What does this fold into?
Amino acid sequence: MAQPNLDIAAELSRFNPVRFEGTPNAYVYSGSTPRNQFFTVISEILGTPNFVIMVARDFFDPAFALEVINFVLERKEEITLPLDHCILHGFAPSNFKFSSMLFLGPNVNGVLHGRSENLQPRTIQAIPIYRCEFSEIDTLETIDVARRYQVITIDWEREPCPRAWIRFKNSKTETIGKRMWIDKEERAITETHRLSDGAGGWMELRNYKEEQIKITFENGSFLIQLADGQSIALPESELNAWIHSFCVRIESV
It folds into this structure.
């Protein structure tokens, strides 16, 4: 059965949407809280009964938003409903360094819940991301945790926030948790430096490519045990750069 046509402007009239230039049947509206301003763009995915929506906080670039819409139109056959989530690579905007796009389906994103119950079931959220922030094997729970505590995905001006799964033990703490958990790169770096405080500590670290390493501190150096069984020793002065490189491994891919 064909989906009924929906009038975006009528559905969202209480938010005073205005036409978004550069593509047919697209609108933008904004709102604010005492601390932030939010911008929302919603566009018909031409040739389908569905819509794409994106949200930005405090900073909004119409040209970039149009590039997001055009990417969706180019790849629309890969993001058909029903859809929970997926990641598409090859996004190459002109003035931003994002490399991929995370898509959340209507049952996941909830952007229009309470705003338009007619549009919501047909609206996919598009989220520009860096390759190192999310993985194709992420569960919805992992994505939710990362977006809540690690990656502010509605900040279009953000620097990359590499994913880091960690588990560690040092002279001041016992092993935290039986399983690895997702945390910020900065936490991994901080806790790794603390290995030099005493003997017997270690850090287990896994990046978005599911590569896992173990780091210990021995004889005045940080010993990194690689997945292939090889080891490298680093002085403390080189540790931060090495961990960052590991977390953003082959960012352009």
Q: What stands out?
A: DSSP finds six helices and 13 strands in the chain. The chain has a mean pLDDT of 92. The chain has two domains: 8-149, 164-247. The first strand starts at residue 18 and ends at 19.
